[in-house]
Structure of Bifunctional protein FolD:
Amino acid sequence: MNSDKLLLDGTRVAHQIQQDLAIRVSQLAAKGIQPCLVTILVGDDPSSETYVRMKGNACRRLGIQSRRIHLAQTTTTEELIAVIHEMNQDSYVHGILLQHPVPPQIDERAAFEAISIHKDVDGVTMLGFAQNAFGEASFPSCTPAAILAILDDYQIPIEGKHAVVIGRSPILGKPVSLMLLNRNATVTICHSRTVGLDHIVGLADILVAAVGKPAFVQGSWIKEGAVVIDAGYNSGNIGDVDYEACLTKSSAITPVPGGVGPVTIAMLLKHTVDAAEKVGQ
């Protein structure tokens, strides 16, 4: 990589966050409290199983209890919500994560909304989204929180910058746009029906790619000196931007893997510890 290009190393940022969390987990242990994250997996999607296993391993390395609930592919919405309500009532559980996606017969939004706001450590409820919009969220969505954590760690200015976000999902594109707006960036949200996408991307001081298409963003679209945050992860360890081409034009860029992903998991752990500390106060 060129010496004047800044590689935004998410693995390093995540390690720093986890070092801090290890101290906080030890302090909670002295009070007889062990942070507990429950992960609910419905069905047998291989990628989801891998993600759940990674999150469980990360919990155990820090001394956070990881409880996994694996429900059958045929589970109904009502059955899933009943399990979530049971976890809401369990005082030893501090965070609840419902792994996306769920089987098609399940009303995913209804299931998300069943999660207590106090245990919504993945930031998936509508109340959590609204709190995030007002800058008051205890637990913002984890990937948007990871993106802000990386920018802050590398002291990349946000205020007054033009941020372009490609993607409008309720747990990534929309919340990260609001978080950047709350930090006084000027934000443009683009999506599959945006006309002149390449032109708009070319105006970005900060680009967040969350479109879910491998190597979609071309280097020719990028303004010289832009900061490129690739929040995509596609088959073959490929992000949403053409990395080599965008590297040429950018001043800073996240790799895939090793960029946003590790910090997303670190933020999930942080939110779980935050929730446990609130209980322990």
In short: The mean pLDDT is 96.
